[in-house]
Amino acid sequence: MTTVLRRMLHRLQPLFAGSVLLLAACMPTGDTPQLRVIATDPGSEAVLGAQQRFHIQFALDSKTPLVVTLDPYFDHQPLSANLGTSAPVLMPAGGGSAVAYLFFWGDYATRVDEIKLVARAPKQAQPAVELALPVKLSWISREVPPHEAAPWVNAMQKNPAAADEREHWLAYGAVILAIAVAGFASHWLRQRRRMR
Asked: Quick one: which of 98, 116, 107 has its CA closest to 161?
């Protein structure tokens, strides 16, 4: 009886070793970035008015710099119509915590049941890590009383680094606007010259 048992164990040894190796390969290593949600404002179930922001405070642990974006979904479909978001958040090597937000504007209601926080290496399409946050949010077109922001939202908005990032995006927007105005003016002048 013991001989039969030994033979069975001897035959199962490679299968057992392979299973252990496969399990070890699936375990996260210290190099894998870790993303987690610290808080949301308002809570994950809320009704918001047009352009009212939903803030997410998150933490990222990563050995390399990563860019974090927010992608809203409803019924497994990505939402982009009338979507407004904060600028992509560049997290330095070593990670840290930050706040990002999104909102919807327009004349029709929008529902969101999941927000994916996606961290990518700069200029890379492939995500390094994703985190799905289940929510039950609705943006409606009628007036909704303003929501007082949580203290951590105000503290992060007063952060000089965050303000510096906003200034860069405002400057970028001003350049785009100036280019558009110059293009329109050039077109208008050409039309005026043709009419003479």
From this structure: 98
